[in-house]
Amino acid sequence: MFRTKGEIFAFIEQKRDELSVSAMCRVYGVTRAGYYAWRRRGECARRREDDRLLKKIETLHRESGNTYGSPRVHVSLKRHGVAVSEKRVARLMRENGLRARSSNLYQAHPANHAFFRAIPNRSLGVMIDGPNQVWVGDITYLKVGRQWRYLATVMDKYSRQIIGWCLGRTKGVRLTLLALNRAVAGRRPKGAVIFHSDRGIEYAAHAFRDRLKGLGYIQSMNRPCKMTDNAHMESFFHSFKSDAYHGLSFSSEQQLRRQIARYIAFYNEERLHSSLGYQSPKAFELGVAA
Questions:
Q1: For 168, phi and psi rounded to 5 degrees?
Q2: Which helix (H) or strand (E) holds 59?
Q3: Cα–Cα distance, 119 to 98 (Å, whole number)
Q4: Cα–Cα distance measured from residue 250 to residue 53, given in angstroms and rounded to the nearest whole number
Q5: Beta bridge partners of 197
């Protein structure tokens, strides 16, 4: 039935609340001391693994300005290639007092709930038949040596073309504003644009909202707990990291910036998109313009 003592000890651990540990050890020919030594080793290994994971969680939580709760930290860990369950992330954050600052704000100031929910997803159901009707934006994490950098991008949802981007050392509204302003300078749309993003403070901040209002743009945000509402940007980040980031190391910000610029040029002008009839974003827009 059992091939090793480890399998016996694991069975005893599973049944120990129902049956006597001493009795099971006698039946299976192992010692109580051996069982408890095995159990301590397992607990130590789990504790060491939890400690390593906690360091990564603390880094992501700190870099978010203490705004990320366990769902966002879990997603960020997955993006960095860390396989872990959301329940484990939530447990470690709870045990170590790591909470999303926004959740505390909501408890102390209920008006903040209305502040964020005041911006609905206005991109749902919009029929897009040309460029500069719906733009989408997002931020991702990239590493230079052992330090994080943050890439904010703006995409025209119609053609999937990246029309503005900015790489920075800090993740905040200045970064998202620079990416937006570069998109505006490059495209100069004549009509009102719907600008869609997630519900991060980098997009909900008054400075960003005021800039959109001054441009005559309409702000749109993901529905609560609906991260797939911004799937186009998530798809771009996945493509970039798979094609031009994972497996490489960057010793300087300049080196990473050149790689991003090269990939975005390739993505816009050459990469074939199945959703666009296997055309590049620029070719797709030129076909419409013609």
A1: -145, 170
A2: helix 32-63
A3: 27
A4: 24
A5: 221
CA distance 136 to 162: 9
Taking the domains of the chain in order of start, what are their residue ranges? 52-118, 121-289
* Average pLDDT for the chain: 83
- Give CATH superfamily name and number for 121-289: Ribonuclease H-like superfamily/Ribonuclease H (3.30.420.10)
- Cβ atoms of 238 and 155 within 8 Å: the answer is no
| Sheet architecture: strand order including 147-156 | 161-168, 147-156, 134-144, 194-197, 218-221
What is the DSSP-derived secondary structure letter of residue 173?
A: H
User: How many Cβ atoms from other residues are within 10 Å of residue 194's Cβ?
Assistant: 20
17-38 confidence digits (pLDDT tens): 546 777 877 777 888 888 777 6
Q: Per-residue pLDDT tens for 185-234?
A: 999 998 889 999 988 889 989 999 999 999 999 999 888 766 677 888 99
Average pLDDT over residues 236-245: 91
Residues 71, 76, 79: CA angle, nearest 5 degrees? 130
